[in-house]
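User: tokens in, sequence out, please.
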């Protein structure tokens, strides 16, 4: 592909214009796309709005399982047979202790996630009290993911100091019936619109690799742009055994990076998060995700393990990026930085395996 093609992607994105569907599709599928110029083009956009900073998120799976919904990709769904550790909402002191850990790990945002269709009024009042306490104790942003939320509940949460409400669109409207039957795409849109009506910033994204076509990914990216979503997680489907959705497309690191670039070009000002599946699908190309994306989870997802925090922090620094923090937790971050790995010496049985087998 000629250099002009990549330059054009940056220019169109920065000028606020929209890439055509044909260009988006070409970017995702054309065999002559070269990864480095594409990443550089996306990086020019990322750099304009977010410099070389990376926002780190930490997830608290505050309630696991017991969900009546049947999202086919989810290990907590009523339809899943995955052997997960289920528990009701964690006690307040546990949620607060994890907020402290999130702050000390350098997280910019603490994401409290709970399973379920949506919170009752009583649960909303409880969460509001918790949000007030966290905000009073730690200079960290709080994001809540609690299922479907109406306008009244959204208003109460906003009043309590919630910074963001997460509710992912996950896939396109036409593909939605293939991934869930207990609620609709429109239900999800209604939650986002309720949040926006009361002035709550929204976090909403996509899951790539659930059997959708490139047109579905393009549609969701454009829908999220229209909604002016502040924070946009791009998840890559993790095939957890026991969920309904096991047969899906094979994701390659190359394709995953192209998707991130597409989302950056179409949502230049959004915080784009390389979210679940980063380690699993990007493999040795993981660090390249930092060029289109400016945000990631520090250490794992809802039911799946991810990197350890020290690895994530090291990767960010090694690539010349800087962690963006809310408060003064530089001391804790320095401690992580000073961690050195010992060089391990080879033992005789490794150096001379023949001797071992002869013995
Ligand atoms: S994604 Fe949320 S609503 Fe859907 S099954 Fe999982 S926990 Fe329930």
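Assistant: Sequence out:
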């Amino acid at each position: 592909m000629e250099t002009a093609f990549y330059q054009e992607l940056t220019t169109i994105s920065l000028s606020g214009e929209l890439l055509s569907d044909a260009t988006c599709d070409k970017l995702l599928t054309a065999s002559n796309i070269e990864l480095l110029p594409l990443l550089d083009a996306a990086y020019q956009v990322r750099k304009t709005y977010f410099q070389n900073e990376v926002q780190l998120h930490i997830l608290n799976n505050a309630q696991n399982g017991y969900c009546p919904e049947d999202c086919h990709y989810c290990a907590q769904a009523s339809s899943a047979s995955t052997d997960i550790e289920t528990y009701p909402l964690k006690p307040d002191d546990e949620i607060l202790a994890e907020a402290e850990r999130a702050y000390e790990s350098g997280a910019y945002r603490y994401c409290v996630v709970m399973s379920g269709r949506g919170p009752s009024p009583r649960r909303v009042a409880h969460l509001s009290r918790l949000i007030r306490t966290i905000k009073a104790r730690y200079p960290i942003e709080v994001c809540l993911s609690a299922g479907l939320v109406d306008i009244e509940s959204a208003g109460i949460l906003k009043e309590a100091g919630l910074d963001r409400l997460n509710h992912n669109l996950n896939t396109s409207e036409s593909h939605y019936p293939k991934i869930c039957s207990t609620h609709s795409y429109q239900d999800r849109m209604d939650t986002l619109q309720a949040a926006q009506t009361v002035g709550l910033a929204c976090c909403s994204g996509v899951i790539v690799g659930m059997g959708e076509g490139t047109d579905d990914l393009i549609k969701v990216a454009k829908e999220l742009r229209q909604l002016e979503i502040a924070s946009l997680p791009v998840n890559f489907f993790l095939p957890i055994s026991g969920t309904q959705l096991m047969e899906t497309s094979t994701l390659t690191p190359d394709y995953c990076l192209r998707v991130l670039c597409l989302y950056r070009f179409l949502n230049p000002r959004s915080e784009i998060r390389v979210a679940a599946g980063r380690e699993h699908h990007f493999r040795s190309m993981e660090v390249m995700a930092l060029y289109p994306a400016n945000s990631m989870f520090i250490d794992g997802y809802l039911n799946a393990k991810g990197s350890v925090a020290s690895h994530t922090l090291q990767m960010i620094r090694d690539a010349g990026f800087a962690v963006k923090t809310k408060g003064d937790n530089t001391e804790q971050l320095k401690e992580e930085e000073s961690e050195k790995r010992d060089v391990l010496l080879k033992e005789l049985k490794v150096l001379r395996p023949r001797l071992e087998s002869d013995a």
